[in-house]
Design brief:
mainly alpha
Length: 46
């Protein structure tokens, strides 16, 4: 896996990035919930 590293002098600088990550997680959860109704089979690949 690869990731990102954030360095900052003030926590306020990183808060917008944290919010975007949280929004992305919420959207992903919504997609997974919607997929429950697709046929009778779930395939999730990373």
């Amino acid at each position: 896996m690869s990731g990102q590293t954030f360095k900052c002098d003030d926590i306020a600088e990183i808060m917008p990035a944290e919010e975007k990550v949280k929004e992305g997680c919420d959207a992903f959860k919504t997609v997974l919930e919607a997929m429950k109704g697709f046929g009778r089979k779930e395939i999730i690949e990373y």
